[in-house]
């Protein structure tokens, strides 16, 4: 029962550019989270946004949530080589556990 | 240090030989879960536990067992591993649904 779907599957940009990845989901959610995974390692939490919030910022990260369109976006500004990783959105419905999407692979080229 | 630990980190085994991957967290989290990660499929939940002695199937529970006898531990058991269970496995914990999830470092399992 995959809930979140990230788009694009892969993204390649130059250092200094902005990277935008999107997440679409199917059913109502309580909140949505974004995680980062460096190759083969554990996932690291980035941002949690609740269903009654529209936008959140954390450093160079900006997350938006549009519950009417059932979608979220993650923007990484002024990207660095160290941002190269896979990014996942995770959604939970009311009373349900988290479900992760297949992820977006971001490559930031020096 | 607050963390989720998994052991072993790497394991190569043969078909049919029972194995257990241990998972432990020191954050007093109620909620624990196991995921497997395969190329192109992202993370798929195997089992989760909302509390001690309470476990539920995730999306891909076939071939796996879990137990939650203590709050801090949530071992994953493969009674008779098969090659299609070759994967990268993650244990995770959180205070509860809708809260930040802490992940373990992963266990790379190869079943020959």
Key words describing this protein structure:
heterodimer; A: 110 residues; mainly beta; 6-stranded mixed sheet; 5-stranded antiparallel sheet; 11 strands; 55% strand; globular; B: 112 residues; 4-stranded antiparallel sheet; 0% helix
Structure description:
The complex is a heterodimer of chains A (110) and B (112). Helix content of chain A is 0%, strand content 55%. Chain A is an all-beta fold and 110 residues long. The N and C termini of chain A lie far apart (38 Å). The model of chain A has no long low-confidence stretch (mean pLDDT 90). Chain B is mainly beta. Helices cover 0% and strands 51% of the residues of chain B. Chain B has strands at 4-7, 10-13, 19-25, 31-38, 42-51, 54-57, 65-66, 76-78, 87-94, 102-103, 107-111. Chain B is globular, with a radius of gyration of 13 Å. The A-B interface holds A 1-2, 30-31, 33, 35, 40-45, 48, 88, 90, 92, 95-103 and B 4, 31, 33, 35, 40-45, 48, 58-59, 88, 90, 92, 97-106, 108.
Determine the N-to-C terminus distance of chain A. Answer: 38 Å
Give average pLDDT of chain A, whole number.
Answer: 90
DSSP summary, beta strand count of chain B: 11
DSSP summary: helix tally of chain A? 0
Instruction: Sketch the topology of chain A as an H/E string, one letter per element.
Output: EEEEEEEEEEE
Give the oligomer, counting copies of the same chain as homo and different chains as hetero: heterodimer
